[in-house]
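[agent] plan:
  1. take the single chain provided in the ticket
  2. run structure prediction with default settings
  3. attach C-alpha cells to the ticket
  4. add a short note for the reviewer (M.T.)
[agent] executing step 1
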Amino acid sequence: IERRIAACLHYEQEAMKSGVRIEALRPLHYLFLAGTELDRGEFKRMTGLGDRTAVDLLSALVRRGLLRSETVQGKVRFGLPLHALRFYFPA
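[agent] step 2 finished; step 3 output follows
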C-alpha cells in the first residue's frame, strides 16, 4: 500500500498541483496501517518539513480528503476520497 499511497501523492503533486507533497507519505502510511488518529503536531513532525510548509501540506491533504478531521484543530485520520481509490485499490 505504501507504493500506492506514493503514486497518489505524486499525482496530486505533479498533475493536480494541489499543494500535496510526497513528504506526507510516511505519516499517511502510518495512519493507514495503525488505523488510528494523530495530533496535527505529530503529523507535521513526521513529514520532516518546516512548520509553515507542514501546515500548508496538512491543509492541502484535508482539502483533498486524503486526511479527515472532526474539527479544524482536531486530530487527523486517514481519508479515502473517491478520486484516490484508483491509486489505493486499482482494479
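[agent] step 4 note for reviewer: The two ends are 14 Å apart (CA to CA).
[agent] ticket updated
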